[in-house]
Write a structure and sequence with these properties.
single chain; two-stranded antiparallel ribbon
């Protein structure tokens, strides 16, 4: 007795069902493999993002130490609290200074090393970003104490 006798239809129908089942099973395996690979990539990217955030983070005590070391003076344009206070008493309190990575995080720098940090005003820090050096920004700027002194010499 043939094993097809219990099934209605021809043996080709059974073969077609087996092929369809094999294709569906193969598609399921491929989707499951891609899903696990995608999840692994997502976890790897999240770990990389956490590592970059750890390198970018600067402690408040380190910021204060950098500001004091640099005498609350932008290391690119030279503007400082003292300079602004000399123009108008209390004006220096409005100067927005930021701690900047000399060697950017994208180039492997960290915020843990105080020697890799510098005091910059917000304008210079935005111009510098993670791509430019202090010298490149210094040539671009048209503001700050350094710019004033450069124009007086001309």
């Amino acid at each position: 007795m043939d094993w097809f006798d219990g099934l209605s239809g021809s043996p080709y129908t059974v073969y077609a069902l087996i092929v369809i089942l094999a294709i569906v099973l193969l598609a399921f395996i491929v989707v499951a493999f891609r899903y696990t690979r995608q999840q692994r990539d997502i976890l790897r990217q999240e770990e990389l993002d956490r590592e970059v955030a750890r390198r970018r983070r600067i402690r408040a005590s380190d910021k204060n130490e950098v500001f004091e070391r640099d005498n609350y003076t932008c290391q690119i344009c030279g503007i400082s609290k003292d300079y602004l206070d000399s123009l108008c008493e209390g004006l220096g309190d409005y100067l927005l200074l930021e701690a900047d990575h000399i060697r950017s995080v994208s180039q492997g720098g960290t915020g843990k090393d105080i020697d890799n940090l510098q005091c910059l005003c917000w304008r210079c820090n935005r111009k510098k970003g993670g791509r430019r050096t202090n010298a490149e920004v210094r040539e671009m700027i048209d503001y700050g104490v350094e710019f004033l002194y450069r124009n007086e010499d001309s």
